[in-house]
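Researcher: Structure for this, please.
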Amino acid sequence: MTTTVQDLGSPDAAAVADALGRGDCGEVAADAGRRAQYSADASNYRRIPLAVVFPRERRHVLNALAECRRLGVPVTSRGAGTSTSGQAVGPGVVLDFSRYFNRLLALDPQARTATVQPGIVLDDLQRAASGHGLLFGADPSTHSRCTLGGMIGNNACGSHSLAWGRTADNVLELEVVTYRGTVVRLGEMTQPEIDEAIAVDDDRGRLIASLYRLAQGDLAVLRTKLGRFPRQVSGYALEHLLPERRFNLARALVGSEGTLAVVLSATVRLISPPPARALVVLGFQDAGAAADAVPALLEHRPLALEGLDHALTDIVTRPETRTAIDTLPAARAWLFAELGGTEEELPLRCKELAETARQATGCTGSEVITDPARARRLWRIREDGAGLATRTPDGSEAWPGWEDAAVPPAQLGSYLRRFTQLLKRYDLQGPVYGHFGEGCLHVRIDFDFTTEQGTAVFRAFVTDAAKLVAEHGGSLSGEHGDGQARSELLPLMYGPDIIALFEEFKHIWDPDNGLNPGMIVRPLPVAGNLRVSPHRTSLPLTTILPFHADDGDFAKATRRCVGVGKCRTAAHRGDVMCPSYRVTLDEKDSTRGRARLLYEMTQGELITDGWRSTEVRDALDLCLSCKGCSADCPVGVDIATYKSEFLHHHYKGRVRPASHYTMGWLPLLSRLAARMPRLVNSLTASRTAPIVKRLGGIDGRREIPRFADETFLTWFRRRTPPADGGRGPVMLWVDSFNNHFSPEVLQAGVAVLENAGFRVQVPDGTQCCGLTWITTGQLGVARRVARRTVTALTPAIEAGLPVVGLEPSCTAALRTDLPELLDTDGDDRDQARALADATVTLAELLVRRATDWQPPRVEARSISQTHCHQHATSGFGADSALLHRMGVDNATLASGCCGLAGNFGFERGHYDVSVAAGEQVLLPAVRSAGLDTDILADGFSCRTQIAQLTDRTGTHLAQLIARALPKDHDCD
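Model: Predicted structure, token format:
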């Protein structure tokens, strides 16, 4: 019997890392933090690697394989780590191609081909190709972060594979290396080319000879049992070895999940998309009716035909997405049909497709979407499906255990109904969605992996589901591959003859079983290596914040991250998540990487010191606490909150970083500085400023903002208010930033509110939302500050006054953080929730409660930077509406976080990341804006970043309005 890597004991992580480091393998990491970050992908599985290698050059890949072969260590290739089947995690060495080995090597517009390294992100290839009017056909929903190497590994498809094919259909040539180090260039081969290669009798020739013999020995089996319909992705694609398919070894290797060879480069086919597209949304009474309509709709040759069930859309709570969903035709399920062609022909084709749909049983209506922006919003719901579906409407966890089975489209209706019955029989639930046009369904199911019984139910269910798919002539996987999730079940789909061929195919390529062992053949058990396991008990970690959405369980909160990796999107698309990753492109600085590390901390195996973990502290260091992930992550992972909780415990009873004492206590220090602002300003601008900064934990390259000569509260309390406004009183929230550094903003707010007919009041004393203490993890102090604030504001709230905030970060804190901080006490909790409900932005108040007020006409052009906390809580909708009413021609920047983010950009060690984040979109846009263009930025941090790094200044919305008011409402 041949000894394989899977049979050998593995050396320890340190020995492997040392060997790889000395072997010229690129960047090597084997610390506990890195291993934790790469212990999971987007599947149910968890396998802690010995080391992670980030190759930069081709030789690094070859050297890493040689060292692993010498050590007897298995290798797992990884792109973005968005696999839902478990084939991107392994117990040996993980090769992460996404960080460095990601270049576009060549693009030939005439030949319509591109040659790429495996780590290139699909969207990066698409951007390069789009400049020539071309694109790559396969487009999975993870296109913003998935890599071509990963797509090749899984034979990824996406929404448009219906028209443009799977990854395999678009791969022309691969250069690969086997575990034993043989480099081979693969593609189509004619019989003379096969004979010539075999005659050479070198490693390549012997490999081709063995593969040729395998194919010739079972031609009938390959022709009749493989490649029966496009989404038959499970197993190895041996049908491409047939002579009529030109013995295409490149396409045969696509979908092999890294078990045969490691891809060094790929040459792919590019296509020319149609000049115009149109989206037709079709409503149905249920998903089964939608599925039944598919065969007739396919006659209209759609580019895509995607399905959504109401159970998926019912989960959505984010206002912007909810609004898009509410515009769908009334139905319980929908089909999104996209047609392509010329502008002239599309209206008729859309009408004909809609008419066909109306004739289908259960169709409730249709709508042609002509607004491109609305169409993008609707498509985004479908793209976010994998994340949205990980929580059921009641908040229960749902998992990808039966993620992407496919059947021939004519069988889809029958399969879907039987599948729904199967769910009911096991008392399980999960929303279905997916590529209905190709018979491929996605579903996340509420398996209970925390108990032995729940795990047994999982295993029994997927076994019965596999049998159901086989009965319908389908494939256990339609695009995500088999991995650990389905490999053990393949005998239920294929007979022993096919399984034997798969095993021989694997042995020819990888006789040592060194590449991703346990996938497809010699499979790992479907219920083994589970990320959530009844055999592993989380550490008893008590939290300050309640984490109600996760039943008060911090481990459950951190495992919200199921690995879909949207936080690894480098391009700005109007969202905020994740600014630090966009700068470093390092997994440890992504929302997912941090969540993985925090989860491992709760498990106490790899990260063993709980709240005191330095690995977790270091991974959270570059988190800007922007809250972008709380809104942009489809699963609602909230690293800013997790960070506050962690820092509270990590530094409890210990000396904190200097910045926690200076910027964390800024509201109190500002009150002291307000007594002698000129002296403080002269000190922070003098020769002693570097010493002050160093002692305060502030980066020496930052300017310390100047304190105002007079605070807003001093100005307000000595003024004579005008007569009572006809709309009644409002409570203006006086935040510490504007009060002490830019009182002119609050003064402008007073002028606008009074012009709109409100009588402005301010809280008694000097109040604070506690934000600076929250972000630095000083939750005990923050809670005391919050309690004082709520007590001060309760009389006004009980009297029905709205609380108007001008600083977005403080407004967000009043709305979201204070109710969490004060959740333990009944009275405090109720008062904090009442305050949250009463809190509004200036734009929200004017748009919703002063509908008959006519704002001043401002014939101006502006660009606006949405504060990241506002993005995460209220959004920019009210601001846009108000600017439109004023006549302002505003362009909202898709810039994400400005990079300063409160104390973050001032802290020593953060300056470079802070500046780099701003330089991606915001700062270049400000510099290129005309002098007649207003730079709108409500956030104090945003305005500070703009002022310190450009020659322009930011303007608050209140200032823009106040500037145009009649002089008797001037705020001076």
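Researcher: Any notable elements?
Model: Residues 368 and 939 are 39 Å apart (CA to CA). The mean pLDDT is 95.
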